[in-house]
């Protein structure tokens, strides 16, 4: 998977063990931006769990010529609501200085492509109410908003 933006080239590829630390760094940045305090070591263990058992999901990493600038994580689920395999787009993150370069749109398209290849019939995601900019991206790409509230309990 590759994508290019007229202003600056970037590429999107599956995360491997070799670039796992870049993925972890970006995922931790995403969590901190959302005020989620998951310890970096737990994020690393979770990433290793996905890399070790591909049926759990896929991680995608965006590189420009110099460094990793974005990451996405799709978790695979068997959803009754969708009548079969679906993906949960748990994370989609682009470093702030690259958020106007088309990187997020390209990363979303790559994630949707992976979901299709894996036989998923739908992709679910959540967006914090304060994130209007990313909401417009998802709406533009054909996602519809549920009128539900997500709840969570840490075990």
| Topology order in helix (H) and strand (E) letters | EEHHEEEHEH
Give the distance, in angstroms, between the N- and C-terminal Cα atoms: 37 Å
Give the spatial strand order of the biggest sheet.
1-2-3-4-5-6
Q: Please mark out the parts with pLDDT under 50 across 5 or more consecutive residues, or reply none.
A: 1-6
Please describe what this structure looks like.
By secondary structure, this protein is an alpha+beta fold. The chain has helices at residues 20-33, 40-52, 103-117, 132-140; strands at 2-4, 9-14, 57-63, 68-79, 84-94, 123-125. The protein is 33% helix and 27% strand. The longest helix is centred in the last third of the chain and has 15 residues, at 103-117.
Question: Mind sketching the topology for me?
Answer:
Layout: E1 2-4, E2 9-14, H1 20-33, H2 40-52, E3 57-63, E4 68-79, E5 84-94, H3 103-117, E6 123-125, H4 132-140
Parallel strand pairs: 5-6
Antiparallel strand pairs: 1-2, 2-3, 3-4, 4-5
What's the quick description here?
Helices cover 33% and strands 27% of the residues. The protein is α+β, with helices and mostly antiparallel strands.
Features:
single chain, 155 residues, alpha+beta, 6-stranded mixed beta sheet, 4 helices, 27% strand, disordered N terminus
């Amino acid at each position: 998977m590759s994508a290019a933006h007229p202003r600056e080239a970037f590429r999107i590829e599956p995360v491997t063990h070799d670039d796992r630390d870049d993925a972890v760094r970006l995922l931790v940045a995403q969590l901190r931006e959302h005020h989620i305090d998951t310890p970096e070591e737990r994020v690393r263990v979770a990433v290793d769990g996905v890399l070790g058992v591909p049926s759990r999901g896929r991680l995608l990493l965006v590189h420009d010529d110099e460094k990793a600038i974005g990451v996405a994580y799709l978790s695979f689920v068997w959803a009754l609501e969708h009548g079969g395999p679906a993906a949960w787009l748990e994370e989609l993150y682009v470093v702030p200085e690259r958020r106007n370069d088309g990187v997020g749109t390209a990363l979303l398209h790559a994630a949707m492509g992976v979901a299709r290849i894996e036989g998923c019939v739908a992709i679910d995601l959540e967006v914090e109410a304060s994130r209007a900019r990313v909401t417009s991206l998802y709406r533009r790409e054909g996602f519809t908003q549920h009128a539900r509230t997500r709840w969570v309990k840490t075990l």
